[in-house]
Each structure stands twice: as C-alpha cells, then as structure tokens.
Amino acid sequence: MTDSLEPSLVPDEQPVAPQQPQAERASDTTPENPWPLSRLSQNMHAYIAKVSPTWVEGQVIELNRRPRVTFLTLRDVNDEVSVSVTLFAQEAARAGDELAEGQRVVVRLKPDFWMKTGRLSMIGSGIRPVGVGTMLERIEKLRQQLAGEGLFDTRHKKPLPLLPHRVGLITGRNSDAEKDVIRNASLRWPSVEFEVREVAVQGVNALREVTETLHELDAHPEVDVIVIARGGGSFEDLLPFSEEALVRAVYAARTPVVSAIGHEADSPLLDHVADLRASTPTDAGKRIVPDVAEERARIAEARAFLQRSVHFFLDREQQMLAQVRSRPALTAPETVLIHREEDIDRLRSRALTAATAQIHRASDVVAQMRARVTALSPQQTLERGYALAQRADGSLIQDATELDPGEKILVRAAHGAAHASVESTEDSNI
Questions:
Q1: Around Cβ 153, how many Cβ atoms within 10 Å?
Q2: Per the domain annotation, does 236 fall within a domain?
Q3: Whole-structure pTM over 0.85, yes or no?
Q4: 278 in a domain, yes or no?
Q5: Which of 77, 99, 130 is the last residue in one of the domains?
Q6: Rounded to an integer, what is the distance from CA 362 to the centroid of its chain?
Q7: Sequence-ordered strand ranges (E) for 130-218
Q8: 133 φ, ψ to 5°?
Q9: pLDDT tens across 368-399, in order?
C-alpha cells in the first residue's frame, strides 16, 4: 500500500462541469447559455423607462371607467393606428365628464413595461380635450399652408363634363344627401347613371374610407365626375373633410371632384380644393348634369333661329335674282348687241377713214420723193441735152485728156447711144 490517499471514484458519479457566466448582451446569448426570463424583463423595463414622455393627439374610440383606473383606446386621427392608455383616478378626475368616446384629446404618454406579465402599457397624464378654437386654428394654419402650395389655385381646377356618362357618388349610408343628389340629378336628366359608394362620413373611419373610395372612383374608367356629399352636422362631425390627406387626394385626382358638404355656411377645406363647390347636396345634383327641359328649349330656340336664318337667306337671294332678271341686259339682250354693233360700225368707219387718209399722205410723200429722185437722176440730165461718154470697159470718162487719139468710146444720149473714135483731145473748161 502507498502512503498517499487518492480519492476513490464511484462508478455512477460524473464530474460536474463548471457554470458559465451569463452573457452581458442579448446578442451574446445562445441555446447553451440563455438568459433567465427575469433578466430580460428587467432589461426591457429599464430600457423602456428611459423613453421620454410624449405629447400626442388622437381620438377616443373606447372608454372604460373604473373606480381606481380608467382604460381608454386612443386612435390616430388620420391613420389606422391605435394604442391602449391607462389613466389613474387622479388624471381621469381632472378630465371630468368632458372625456367621452369620439372626443379628440391631447395626452402625455409614458410607456411602461409590467415585468410580471410582460405587458407594455401607456400611462397617460395631463389629458385635455381639443377645443373647437384649437381645431379652428389648426385648420386655418393648414389652409394657409395648402394655399401657399397652390392647391386652391383656380388654374388647377378641372371643368365638369357637359353630360357625364356616369357620376361617382361618395356619401353616407342611407343618407338624405345621397337621396338629394340622385333625386335632383334625375329630375334634370332622367338617364343619368350613378356609381354610389356608401362610406362613413364622420368619426374615426371617415377619412380613410372617403380617401380610399375617392381613389377607387378616380380609377374607374366610366366615372366622369365624383361628388362627395354629406348633410349638415356639427363642426367636429365635418372635421374629416378638412384633413390634409383628403385635401391632397382630391387635388391629385384626375377626375373632376364636386364638394357638397353640409349647408351653405359650412366650409371645410375640401370646398377650396374641389373643382366645384356646391352649397348643398341638392345644389350638387342640379349642377352636375344639365336640365333636359332647358336643353330642349335651347334646341328649339336654335332650330327656330336656323329656320329664320335660312328663310332670310332664301328671301334675300330671291330678291337678288329678281333684280338681276329685271336688268335690261336680261329683259332685252338684243339692245346690248345693237349698241355694240353700232360701236363696231362707227369704229370700222373711223378706221377706214384714218387708213385712207394715211394712204393719201403716204402717196403724196412717195410722189414728192419720186420727183426728187427723178430730178436728180442721170436720165433727167440727159433729157436736158447732156451725154455720157464711156470707155470700152464701161467706165465713165471724166478727163478727156486721158484719152488716146483713135480710142473707141461710147456716147450715151437721152435716147440711144453712138460709137465714136477720138481724133484729138484738148484741155479746156466750159
């Protein structure tokens, strides 16, 4: 045996592996080294506690009052987004009875993570309803902003078609506005067709449903004009028709849009951007289609005007034909020929007289010239007793001293010629 003591190993015992330290970061966790759930909850609670409180605006769609706490659901006024909010008794007491479903409120929210159940909640404080004055101020600021961008400029407004093939109507479910538009339009033009879309025209769903339906009808190939109609209501009921999202959607629509919201005194921002603003749904029904009775009257008036114009034209042309027929050239056409025949005879006589006189004058000139030529001719000289002497070659003899004695010459007289021979020459002048 040895003196050293060695630990004996039990066959069924295994060595214990050393425990790994917990990961510092969530990204460092693994299936072999996970976090305890409590640590995740603690970290989330600590992280969410750092988030600063935020003032938000929304609309109360659900309200549940309890003795110690009040639960409400707050929804965004434009988008399909909602959150649950918890108000403690003191905060709910400050809001009082003004807090109700459908109310627009401003509340300060602080997110809170409940570690035991892993639930995220919003703790509300300082809740206050949004008054009419505040909403009016916001709408006025939005109106000035959109006007500055040119959304209300009349240059961008599209003209309504004279006779729409189909009218798109966006209105409330089984509403009087729908009946007013359809009834008045059908009275004016019985064959008008409607593409009706019934949507929420007040409340939290109004903006989304009206905007989506507007896009749908704007893409409809047979809809030539779109009417957005709603009867009268409180200022809060008409707020969806002053929302920026709807105003921009109407501005971007390719189809002309008619606004028929409320009564004459109501003027949401939709009225400013629409291509046509109707004071009431009844007025919209009268303005989107022509009146068949008026159109028939105009056609009858135009037809009568055309008939009068045609009759007047025919009468005037007949009078002109009568005047032309009464002219002497048509009543006695031979008169004109007689006048022209007399003119021709007169001109012919004048031409003959002028030609005869011209011939006589020319004959006198010729006679004078003939007398001059005759007087200057050699024959005339010979007639006066002179004679011409020529050499044998036919040349005239101008210098007698140039002749040789015995040379043959020809002497021409006025009548006949004689052959002679030169006997002698002498130099003498007459």
A1: 11
A2: yes
A3: no
A4: yes
A5: 130
A6: 85
A7: 167-171, 194-198
A8: -60, -40
A9: 998 888 877 777 777 777 788 888 888 887 77
